Amino acid sequence: MNIAIIGGGAAGFFAAITCAEANPAFRVTIFERGKSVLEKVRVSGGGRCNVTHACFDARELVRNYPRGSRELLGPFMQFGPEQTVAWFEQRGVRLKTESDGRMFPISDDSQTIVDCLTRAAHQAGVRVLTSTRVEKIERESTLPNNRWQIGSEIFDKIMLATGSSTTAWDWLRELGHNIVPPVPSLFTFNTKDTRLRDLAGVSVPIASLRILGTKLSAEGPLLVTHWGLSGPAVLRISAWGARDLHEMGYKFPLEVNFLGEKNPLAIGEMLSQIKLESGKKLVAANTQMNLPTRLWQRLVEAAGVAPECRWADLSKLELQALTGQIATANFQITGKSTFKEEFVTAGGVSLKELNFKTFESRICPNLFLAGEVLDIDAITGGFNFQAAWTGGWLAGRAMSEG
């Protein structure tokens, strides 16, 4: 049996290794158009590789997938984070869990994961062809059992793990698949708001975000960047709002509550109490609410409070304005930026056209699909890689079954 895996990324390597280990008699080949394999693994997590997330309940895990949550429930029950951790540990790579649930190799080096996968593939007898561009895949009607042709070579089964590849999507359209138009997901927000000028690197632990005029909202850590706003809260709302925000041209009003769940009324009451207790102190110099000092000073300035104003002299209107700057600050978003090197898209092969027990196409027998070629994506935190490991493992197991 001759098996072809097109794409030398996480899903492709997992499928190849799983298939070759399960059935050593099979010949498994990975075709990678780049000069090296597993490049996205190498750069992920700031070079540390966020392998997965310590969420071992499949029903909780799927809640982190804006697209694919229903379809992935069964697969995660077969092969989820727990099985991923065990898979790497069996091959000599231990993972550690950080406070937010993200899991990394204890080496804090993505090369550890790359080496583990390439070593496992070599030991399993997988043939890895780099700098090898597949020009097209052909389903040969003259060949028995729906076999495939790539160049001059015939394959019994093939798998596309090509990521967000327009070429692969074109092949799949020709084969009868429907492609959900891809749009960016997991991106940061650009704004030129003067309140954030020179505050790059400043963060708040919990903020609540709401895109006005929509139902989109999110909560989590918020980070100020040179271009605007980032952090888990922004990435979460960008993932769930990927299509809506694309339609808006990435221009929209964003409301930020810098204190997360605390509502404006409660924040106003807190500020009134501070006014009573800290009357002689300067408002701008007396940072409150555990906000970063520089951010506090910008919000005080934006509320129209003079630098020399003391708490006791704060007017009712100024108090209301300061409450608004903390609880309902409005920022006009003017565009987006890619989140580090980790580009993720929403879109791909329609999920109705895949058998999620095997990750085999319902349209073309002996064609398997996994990873970002599918209309599946997740928020940041190791969830996208977990979908790749799961899809690769299930596809590899199914391909090994003759």
Can you walk me through this structure?
By secondary structure, this protein is α+β, with helices and mostly antiparallel strands. The protein has two domains: 2-184 and 341-399, 3-Layer(bba) Sandwich (FAD/NAD(P)-binding domain); 187-338, no CATH class. It is built from 13 helices and 22 strands. It has helices at 10-22, 39-47, 58-61, 69-78, 81-90, 110-123, 166-174, 232-240, 242-247, 264-277, 293-302, 316-327, 383-399, and strands at 2-6, 27-31, 52-53, 95-97, 102-105, 127-129, 138-139, 148-150, 153-155, 157-160, 179-185, 187-190, 203-211, 217-224, 228-230, 252-257, 329-333, 335-338, 344-349, 354-355, 360-361, 367-369. A seven-stranded antiparallel sheet has the order 17-16-13-14-15-12-18. The protein is elongated. It starts with a strand and ends with a helix. The mean pLDDT is 96.
Q: What's the helix and strand layout?
A:
Blueprint: E1 2-6, H1 10-22, E2 27-31, H2 39-47, E3 52-53, H3 58-61, H4 69-78, H5 81-90, E4 95-97, E5 102-105, H6 110-123, E6 127-129, E7 138-139, E8 148-150, E9 153-155, E10 157-160, H7 166-174, E11 179-185, E12 187-190, E13 203-211, E14 217-224, E15 228-230, H8 232-240, H9 242-247, E16 252-257, H10 264-277, H11 293-302, H12 316-327, E17 329-333, E18 335-338, E19 344-349, E20 354-355, E21 360-361, E22 367-369, H13 383-399
Parallel strand pairs: 1-2, 1-10, 2-6, 10-22
Antiparallel strand pairs: 3-5, 4-5, 7-8, 8-9, 11-19, 12-15, 12-18, 13-14, 13-16, 14-15, 16-17, 20-21
